[in-house]
Write a structure and sequence with these properties.
The chain is built from 14 helices and seven strands. The two termini are about 25 Å apart. The radius of gyration is 26 Å and the shape is elongated. A hairpin with a 3-residue loop joins strand 1 and strand 2. Helix 3 crosses helix 14 and helix 13 crosses helix 14.
Length: about 350
């Protein structure tokens, strides 16, 4: 590279379109490595192209930083927020996704599961974009609900359908486990043995053996059977289109659950009553948005971390997730490898 010693400006070095200062890798090679790092693990990419893990990391970091600087954030109509564990010791990431039909991508990653971390996202996008958000999908965690209420005053907050079903399944499993222990203690026949997945799985996913076992189980007058019937009856709730009729069904179901004298199911009914309006927002949004997209993206995020057996630092985890899920623009290069 040519060098010029100018009396006014000092030493100036010729700029090369394919290089970045004294960086050891060219732009085209970093884009090439980052492209393969999206398909393979970083270690496999390094071994395949006879380089090191650090060089692959540098390439991905360059592409991600360039993409974050040049991406277009708005307009944002619908977002989903959730958390995943990224390391041992209750270390969580707060992930915010854009979940519109024509644009599904990772918008932001926050360290820890706190109010402060979630508020950083709204600080990043600014007040105009925050006020333009129409729909937000989240779980029932109160700090999330509070931040959404304060920072997205115009948005319809849709509660996570996945977590509602998960809470109901957990309650049913608690009833089954407690009753199985009681039957064993009293010396009765172990009719609940090996029936966990018979009552937790959807009917369409049951194996032939599980179907026969479930049919035999339903003959008994057990709390587990009554809880199972309540759970199956609640599935009709998601088939409604009108918020009014869905609200009537929800109220009737909660009343039935409260009269069942099954404590775990009563606890679920109280939770549903406490979040009634937020649950009905799913129907007010005409079922256009749900947490299914968020859970699918969470699975991809977990796969990205599991593919490399985890990352040691938050910074590297952040880079890897943006690279895999952010749909970031890539820098232009003088040529591309075939």
């Amino acid at each position: 590279m040519r060098r010029v010693d100018c009396r006014a400006c000092g030493v100036r070095v010729e700029e090369l379109p394919w290089a970045i200062g004294k960086h050891q890798l060219t732009k085209a090679y970093m884009v090439f490595l980052a492209h393969w790092a999206r398909k393979l693990s970083w270690k496999e990419t390094a071994v395949s192209f006879r380089t090191t893990w650090d060089k692959v990391c540098q390439a991905v970091e360059y592409v991600v930083e360039w993409g974050l600087e040049h991406r277009s954030l708005g307009p944002i109509r619908a977002i989903g927020v959730d958390e995943i564990q990224y390391a041992k010791g209750h270390k969580y990431l707060t992930l915010v996704y854009q979940i519109e039909q024509d644009c599904t991508r990772l918008l932001w990653i926050g360290k820890d599961r706190t109010v402060e971390s979630f508020e950083q996202f709204f600080t990043l996008i600014g007040k105009p974009l925050s006020e333009g958000i129409e729909f937000v999908c989240s779980d029932m965690w109160k700090p999330y609900l509070r931040v959404i209420r304060e920072r997205c005053a115009n948005a319809v907050n849709i509660l996570d359908r996945f977590h509602i079903v998960a809470k109901m399944n957990d309650a049913l499993d608690d009833v089954r486990a407690a009753e199985a222990r009681r039957l064993a203690h009293d010396g009765y026949e172990p009719v609940l043995k090996k029936t966990r997945w018979c009552v937790l799985k959807r009917k369409a996913n049951l194996t032939p053996t599980q179907r026969f076992r479930l049919r035999d189980l339903l003959r008994y007058n057990l709390k587990t059977v009554r809880a199972y019937l309540l759970k199956e009856d609640f599935q009709q709730f998601w088939d409604y289109d009108s918020p009014t009729w869905a609200a009537k069904f929800l109220d009737d179901w909660c009343q039935q659950a409260m009269r069942s004298r099954i404590e775990p199911m009563k606890k679920v009914a109280k939770t549903l009553r406490g979040h009634r309006e937020l649950i009905l927002n799913y129907f007010r949004a005409k079922k256009q948005f749900s947490s299914g997209v968020v859970e699918g993206l969470n699975n991809k995020a977990k796969l990205t971390m599991r593919k490399s057996y985890g990352f040691r630092t938050f910074r590297v985890t952040e880079i890897a997730l943006y690279h895999a899920l952010g749909k970031l623009p890539e820098p232009e290069t003088t040529h591309r490898f075939c």
